[in-house]
Amino acid sequence: MFLLLLLGGLGLITLMVLLFAPQIRRHAAGAQCKSTVCLDGKTVLITGANTGIGKETALDLAMRGARVIMACRDVEKGEEAAASIRAAYSKAQVEVRELDLADTCSIRAFAQIFLKEVDQLHILITNAGVMMCPYTKTIDGFEMHIGVNHLGHFLLTSLLIGLMKRSAPARIVVVSSLAHNFGWIRFHDFHSQGSYNSGLAYCQSKLANVLFTRELARRLKGTNVTVNSVHPGTVNSDLTRHSTLMTICFTVLSMFLKTPQEGAQTSIYCAVAEELHSISGQHFSDCAPAFVAPQGRSEETARRLWDVSCEQLGIQWD
Ligand SMILES: NC(=O)c1ccc[n+]([C@@H]2O[C@H](COP(=O)([O-])OP(=O)(O)OC[C@H]3O[C@@H](n4cnc5c(N)ncnc54)[C@H](O)[C@@H]3O)[C@@H](O)[C@H]2O)c1
């Protein structure tokens, strides 16, 4: 009897999902970037552009006429992604360059060659990220989430900001997450040496993205370089690769999640929308301003994080 009820219930749920599939998909897809801005003559740099949201962002911006530089850890995978972008749009000007955000030497080498060979940078999208990986350290001994998601991008941006100021108007888009709501900056244990929880480490790094955006925007006032952070939505990508449970959940619930193309819309919106030309230090989701948790609005924490980041990286950035 119980089994019959269970099967009947499951059958009913399946029927409802199938019946309402188009509505569910439409709702899950979220907002589309409606801007038709053309990017002829503009140069864009996207980190982690060989998969997921980054790859879709690269395709869209290349279709708008930009020269898109895809900064990828694995050049071979990057070249495959670039080839598929060229196959989708034969005029795409996409280039792959090697960048491992888990290695400050790689970041410095990348920036050195970039500054030598590229004379303008109008849009920087710090998109690369890792989520819920087992406790690992970057080459420089940073905990992987804070090391790649925050410190790596902090160093990269510091090295390229002069070029962006010279290329102004220019925009920086920092791909953060709703997960920043559940994070706090553990200044007393920045690299989770005392205790480690992969979910909380991810949340800390995504909060760091929001606070970095806020402080950088304050420092960039009057330069015509803006910076905003985004939550792309919950996107069915490879990001869950380190968590079997998350991968299963994302697969089962895929109909309710955004595709990478849908997840790229807010990054694209922040990169091109005309109405955002002077908007800086804000957080966006679904191509609209989004809620920022109180810990992401603290100017004091943002300044302290800035100083700690400079100290950890051994750099001066005033
Ligand atoms: N997928 C989601 O639901 C979701 C939700 C909120 C935020 N985000 C954010 O969106 C961004 C893109 O994620 P995605 O969903 O497209 O996942 P993804 O795994 O497809 O993309 C992440 C990219 O980062 C790159 N990367 C990882 N470590 C790197 C390193 N050390 N050096 C250089 N590149 C590195 C990967 O190679 C990959 O190309 C991430 O910052 C993620 O935190 C994703």
From TrEMBL:
Keyword Oxidoreductase: yes
Reactions catalysed according to its record: all-trans-retinol + NADP(+) = all-trans-retinal + NADPH + H(+)
Gene Ontology MF, one: all-trans-retinol dehydrogenase (NADP+) activity
InterPro entries, per database record: NAD(P)-bd_dom_sf, SDR_fam
Pfam families in the cross-refs: adh_short (PF00106)
Keywords: Lipid metabolism, NADP, Oxidoreductase
EC number, UniProt record: 1.1.1.300
Pathway(s) it belongs to: Cofactor metabolism; retinol metabolism
Family the entry assigns: Belongs to the short-chain dehydrogenases/reductases (SDR) family.
Protein name as annotated: NADP-retinol dehydrogenase
Organism of derivation: Gouania willdenowi
Taxonomy of the source species: Eukaryota, Metazoa, Chordata, Craniata, Vertebrata
